[in-house]
Structure formats: structure tokens, C-alpha cells
Amino acid sequence: MRARVAGAALLATIAASGCGGDDESGGPDPFTKVEQNERARDARAKATVAPRWAPVSSLRGSGDASRTVRISRDAVQWRVHWRCTLGDFALQLTPRPQEGNPLATGTCPGTGTARAIDTGMLRLGVRTEGSWRATVEQQVTEPIAEPPLPAMKAKGARVLASGRFYPIERRGRGKVDLHRLAGGRLALRFENFETSANTDLFVWLSGANRPRTTKQALRSRHDEFAPLKSTGGAQNYLLPKGVDAGSVRSIVIWCEPIRIAYTAARLR
Questions:
Q1: Which of 28, 88, 176, 213 is most buried, judging by how many CB atoms fall within 10 Å of its CB?
Q2: What domains lie within the chain, and their CATH numbers?
């Protein structure tokens, strides 16, 4: 299998900035290094939040096929995860990508990932004998904008507690609500959320009443239950089943690689 990698320069820069980067990235392609550096520099200049992977399309088929995908003009890069069942596999792109065709080849059954930096309306061509699936994602640098979960507005749902984020080791702002859904499941809703742009951040359910330092956050009972979706914007999280609402006194945004608490919000 061969898969070309784009955008590695941006991810390496982010990793060096303090809280880690995307561990799926590979080495840069020397033939597009200059262009990638320019793309990364432009992305950093425009970024309002840390780069995040956003879904574009889920594709499937059997045998040779082609599908159209739309990649945002502002995307840093995009990737396609593929899975095939029979024969050989090849993934072609039209217009011809800057990375060259085919984007990926492999032997089925098998899986793989291909990356590119081309944007706009693109046509993915699949060449294989059996059934296949592909998931396309793009890396973007704008705040996430998830609407509230429908279950949050359904009959019987209610807000149990709310809080506002405050800085600990890094800046933090915005509101968080703890919802109990009609079926009993708990969920979090962040609105106007913002913290320092970085990667490898996690959402903690904390037993601390109002942690003000990293040590206080660490010493309290906590559950690292989900990666942070984005360092800015509106976002939802379903809590694990069986979580007791009374045990969650605050929400902490935690940076695992350097083990510091970025920001927190007291729930009451």
C-alpha cells in the first residue's frame, strides 16, 4: 500500500507548541515541502482554534465506482480512510492531485489512509473487485458549531447544573450545561466555549468543587471521558452510562502530554 501524506509540517509545528499533535501524520513529501510550509503558515495565520478533523462524506460501493466530494477551500488538508474486501485496490483523484495518482493502492481484504491538500469539488475513483467503504474527513481551523442534541429539548429533559469556564494554566471562557435527558442519560453542552488553541486535550468529569490549580485537579476524583472536539465553539458530549450527576462537581479541560489543567467550570 502507498499513501501520500500532506500537511505534516503544520502538525509538527503544533506538536512542538506544547500539547502534542496528530500521531497519525507521516513524513513530509520532499517534492511538495515548500508548498506545504506555505499552506501551514497560511493556516496558522487564519486559525481561530486548533486544527480538528471534521466529517465530509461516508461512501460505499461494490467494484469500480466514482464519487464526488466537496472539500472546503479553507481546509488545511483532507484524508480518506478506506476498507476493501476482494482483489487489488486503487484510489484515484480527479482533477489530478498535487500529490500524484493513485492516492493509495492496496491488497484486499485490507484498510488504509490517503491524504491530500487539494480543495473544491473532487471526484474519487475506486478500482477494486469487491465491496468497499471510505470515510472522508477534512482538517479545518474554525470553531465547531454543533446544534443542541434534539434530546436536550425533548419533553422530560432538563438542565441539572450550569457553570462558566475560567482559566487555570491557560485561558478559558464560555458556558457549560449538564443535562439529564428524558431517558436518564446525562449530557454536556458547551456554548461560546474557548480555550488556548492546541491538540490532545481531554474533557474531565471532576469531583473537585472549584479546582484552581493543576494539582487540585489531579488530586480530586476525575474521569477522563472524551477527547475535546474543538478548542472553540458549541459542542455536545454524551456522558457514559451510569455516571451519577451528583458526583460531577466541575468540568476540567486537561492537556495529557504535559499534564496540566487548561481551564475548568464549576457546576452548580
A1: 176
A2: 2-140 (2.60.120), 144-266 (no CATH)
